Amino acid sequence: MRPDTPAENVDHPAEAARLERTADLYPEDAEALLLRAAAHRELSGDRPAATALYDRLLASATTLDHPHLVRALKASNLWEYGHEAEARAIIEGLRAAAPRDPASWVIVAEALEAHDELEAAQEAFTQGVTVLVGEADVPPRPTHPLLFGRHRVRRMLGLAHDAWDTLADTLHSMPVSLDELHDPKRVWSLGSDNPAELAAEISRLRAELGAYREALSRPYPVAVLHWPTRELTELLAAYPDLETEYPSHEHHLSTIEASLRELASSGTPNLGIVTGTLPSYEAFAASEAASPTDPALLPQYATTLAARGRATPWPPEPTTTCWCGSGRSYGGCHG
After folding, report:
1. Which DSSP helix (H) or strand (E) runs through 279?
2. How many Cβ atoms sit within 10 Å of the Cβ of residue 254?
3. Interaxial angle between packed helices 144-157 and 163-171, expressed in degrees from 0 to 180 and rounded to the nearest 10
4. What is the pTM of this model?
5. In 3D, which of 186, 229, 243 has the Cα closest to residue 327?
6. Model confidence over 229-240: pLDDT tens digits?
């Protein structure tokens, strides 16, 4: 969600301004771009400016893809610079709305946790898990931070493990167990004179940092370009020279999956798929002063769409709808 680059290494105000200008040029991507801009404003310490961006999104005439997420981020930001009452009101409204977005629940619960409202944080995490995980044996990947956060807060409260804590343990893949990672007493080991204890604590902290970095947003993904059937037909009708790149739609779809699997097997993280449209592609070609028939322009177009927040993460969960648009589950289609 938020950039995790230290302020001393990035000119956050300048990056926020750049993203805001880009949002003006591409209003269809304003939500993703302005959320990133708001994160940079927060990291620069200009929290009122971040709130203004959240308000700009919420007041927009365009329907937001993730309105609950915007409200959660606004509440968290408001609380950080003294607007506790307003933040609490937004949080109560979000909990009443019971959003289906895991990130909204995580941000709300972690805002409560950050202000030592551990009981309320535990309740928020539990409510989010109840809404989004329920009785599922294999919870979707985006819900994992909810389960991990709930485990952490319950450990700090000294509560006994329940079924969801056990599920969180099975999902956790770091070298240090969740119980050890979330042990509230481990902080005392930092004052130890024993080198072995200090080395163990460094190992725990590294594992915790890895978990947080995994939960934070990453740079835009390495994205592969996907043309739906109708769009590919229109593209080839307008630019038949591209038929060498796309012999058939079936070949195009199989090439996408094969390319992504090859990238994954080589260790490339953060993969995604972007969907192209002919008008968007022609506009991009014009902005680059290039011909749409140039095959070298296609990966550049994909990268630009990804940078504008248009990428869908790959691979999907096996039970979710396949990226190709067939309407079948990914596990029963290209998965």
Report:
1. helix 278-287
2. 13
3. 120
4. 0.69
5. 229
6. 999 999 999 999
